[in-house]
Amino acid sequence: MDFRKKPEEPKKQTLYTRKIDDSQADKLDDWLDKHLFAPYEVQYARFAYKSRDVNVVFYNSGKLVVQGKGTEDFVQFVLEPEIIGVFEFGYDDVTHPEWYEPHAGIDESGKGDLFGPLVSACVIADGDAVREWTKNGLKESKKVSSDNAAIKMAKMITKTPNVIAKVSYANMEKYNELYLKFGNLNKMLAWMHARAIENALAEQDKLSGRHVEWGMLDQFTKQPLVQRQLRVKNFTLKLQTKAESDPVVAAASIVARATYIYALRKLSKEFGEPLLKGAGAKVKEQAENIVKKFGGENLGKFAKLHFKTAFEAEGKEAPKRAPFVRGKKSPEEK
Predict the structure, then answer these.
(1) If 0-12 CB within 10 Å is exposed, 13-18 middle and 19+ buried, where does residue 138 land?
(2) Looking at the chain, which runs of residues are DSSP E strands?
(3) If you write DSSP's letter for every residue of 34-101 in order, what string do you get?
(4) pLDDT digits (tens, 9 = 90+) for 96-110
(5) Are residues 311 and 318 in contact, defined by beta-carbon separation less than 8 angstroms?
(6) Phi, psi of 89 (to 5 degrees)
(7) CB 240 within 8 A of CB 219
(8) Are 251 and 161 in contact, with CB atoms under 8 Å apart?
């Protein structure tokens, strides 16, 4: 080692976002004005200011965006002490040390969408990857502003050194076959999560010989459905609500969403126009057009046939759900 060589300084974070309330926004607006930050116009923003090394934008949605080479200094010396009164920036290593341990993150995309597959993704990463992603503005997929942004972020995640990312999904016809087999969406999702986890762990063991001991999954059911499906040893799957706060789970949500977007775009080309997400009125109208154009027998090439919207698009009555009876076990519990 050459001790004369000056150590490389860590890369500074140049993008920061968070939600703030109206009173905090008013306080920040006043502070920026008094300190002679230059106001400028930004679409959908209540206010926006810039200085030589930082831009500060507060959107009507309540989201605050700080961007530029002076981001870290502004957050640490202005935003947190003067406006928010909470010191969080740069302390994740202390407040959430588990985020920086080598572990797996698991999440899905497409569960509530009529068109396109259900995708499970498992990402395995360590602290170096988490720090790199944080500097590059990693967010949980629901907070990413556009499909292109999600795809770009997914590429950044998968190209990070020593990161493993595996997905589990099927084309729509296979999806509908699997749903008939499982008869329950949560059971089917659990099976897909288990396959993604197993494939990622196998790849990790093959590449590094190091076994990851635990993973985090956003809790979608109170039953241990995924654990029952896993065929690996010495691996603990932790479940919690809002697990996307863990950057590795957030990375999995991004990878899952990007995979779903690619699949939906492919189906859109077959249909002849962009297919919409969700299961609302406009989605139902597109499903009806698919039936008219290709016939009801081909709706399953584009849509999840167990959705009520799919039945309605074919002019059929959706099966009624069994009434809830307190104390009676669900199919998941039997």
Answers:
(1) buried
(2) 15-19, 38-39, 45-50, 55-59, 63-67, 103-109, 119-125, 164-168, 214-218, 236-240
(3) HTTPEE---TTEEEEEE-SS-EEEEETTSEEEEESTTHHHHIIIIIIIIII----TT-HHHH-GGGGS
(4) 688 889 999 999 999
(5) yes
(6) -60, 125
(7) yes
(8) no
The pTM (predicted TM-score) of the whole model is: 0.73
Q: Are 287 and 156 in contact (CB under 8 A)?
A: no
The number of beta carbons lying within 10 Å of the beta carbon of residue 16 is 20
332 pLDDT higher than 70: no
More confident residue, 141 or 52: 52
Chain segment 14-62, per-residue pLDDT in tens: 888 888 999 999 999 999 999 999 999 999 999 999 999 999 999 999 9
Instruction: Find all residues with CB under 8 Å of 66, minimum gap 6, and list them.
Output: 15, 16, 17, 54, 55, 56, 74, 75, 79
Tokens of 296: 């009801």
Which residues lie closer than 8 Å to 128 by C-beta, 6 or more apart?
Answer: 161, 162
- The pLDDT tens digits for 235-288 are 999 998 888 889 999 999 999 999 999 999 999 999 999 999 999 999 999 999
